[in-house]
């Protein structure tokens, strides 16, 4: 594994997440990845057609998991929640612009897994 | 000492800074050779064949038992080969405690146990209605003051399970003292000591510790995986029921029933990991040939150097050969990943000690654990890697 993992976009999103926060009285779910010590809660506000209007997250974890969820939440606003739940892990990797090792895939997919529980 | 040359992995990766010895140690050439010899030259089963290579296999297997016994100051008949520390502790839980403890009895453990010395007790407690109590942490040490012990230990306390060296904090618990103190309050307490992180780093004399059972793994002391040891006091082993019934552990079987083989053989049902036991015997030789004085000196020099070099680069906790690093702004996973880019292997996570991490207020940590082949060059690589982590992650505000 080379240094490319910590590209500017990942570090930037990790240090200054755009979608960090809570939304009251909306759909939410959480999950912990105890092995790594990651904890993530996601809030999603949808309109009456199930289209995502707003999405936020709370929690802590490694740079990969946090950056991936932050980018993912950007990506999903304006889409139907039911569609988002069908997203595949590889799409996260495409979003991050890199291939991940099996251990880091778990980190990167955490956000999507939480959304699937909503 | 040129110790690295004794480990073939450094021929493949000459610059490898392997600092995850708490998870498993690397294997020296002589251990690999010894196992290779078994598999190539006399890979017969033991205690069975009346032919040369089987007799040789039996002899080597039993000679490994003798070496292990001498290594920890015990009698060969008190040495049971298992698959590892976890299996050894489970044998105590299922074979001894399940039979000898009853509803309402209490088990004392410590707040720094590896899951392998906690979960078997939690499971047994659930099954039998036992209560588990925790000897608390005070900083990185156990609080063994008289008041605390008086509050925790009583006539219902039948069992104590305690780690000798913490796999997270490196804390070397004064087990001999602790055992003396608890047995003074209740002499009937049976104590099992988890020696997984101790045996490769300090001489152990089980009789001296006053324990009833002592468990450890081969793979954390330069031996192979798949082999471990449970030592038990003779009286305790006599009270212990085997968990693996079948071939190899009986003396006579009829349609009506069976008679068990003698101790320790009755606890080794099925074909054991023969080559691995023989390899473990060789690992004992390896340690004894290096000698405790040189081993300890080398390890002390390395961790002192680390303590000196770490400075303000990261927050470091731990005693002796095991340390955890906490870096503000960088998650352990990312720390380990960046260290990997400079050839440094460390562990990130909870290291099978989740309750301990909760106590420490951490979700996870980055662990450095040393062994005899580590030297200043490994520490220098680690320090270089930590500087890199700081450069990438730590905000300058
Ligand atoms: C203190 C301690 N106890 C028990 C174990 C379990 O050892 P094994 O996985 O070899 O059974 C370990 C190893 O991770 C350990 O460090």
TrEMBL record, chain A:
- Biological process, per Gene Ontology: iron-sulfur cluster assembly
Listed Gene3D superfamilies = 3.90.1010.10
- By its UniProt entry, which Pfam families does this protein fall under? NifU_N (PF01592)
The NIF system FeS cluster assembly NifU N-terminal domain is annotated at 6-117
Q: Which GO terms describe its molecular function?
A: iron ion binding; iron-sulfur cluster binding
Domain of life (superkingdom):
Bacteria
Q: Which PANTHER family does the record associate with it?
A: IRON-SULFUR CLUSTER ASSEMBLY ENZYME NIFU HOMOLOG
Q: How is this protein named in the record?
A: NIF system FeS cluster assembly NifU N-terminal domain-containing protein
Q: Which organism is it from?
A: Candidatus Shapirobacteria bacterium RIFOXYB1_FULL_38_38
Automatic annotation (TrEMBL), chain B:
Where would I find the Aminotransferase class V domain in this sequence? 18-382
Keyword annotations for this protein?
A: Lyase, Pyridoxal phosphate, Transferase
Q: Name one GO molecular function term.
A: cysteine desulfurase activity
This protein's record includes keyword Nucleotide-binding: no
Q: Which domain of life is it from?
A: Bacteria
Q: Which SUPFAM superfamilies match?
A: PLP-dependent transferases
Reaction catalysed by this chain?
(sulfur carrier)-H + L-cysteine = (sulfur carrier)-SH + L-alanine
Check the record and name the PANTHER family matching this protein.
Answer: CYSTEINE DESULFURASE (PTHR43586), CYSTEINE DESULFURASE 1, CHLOROPLASTIC (PTHR43586:SF8)
User: What is this protein identified as?
Assistant: cysteine desulfurase
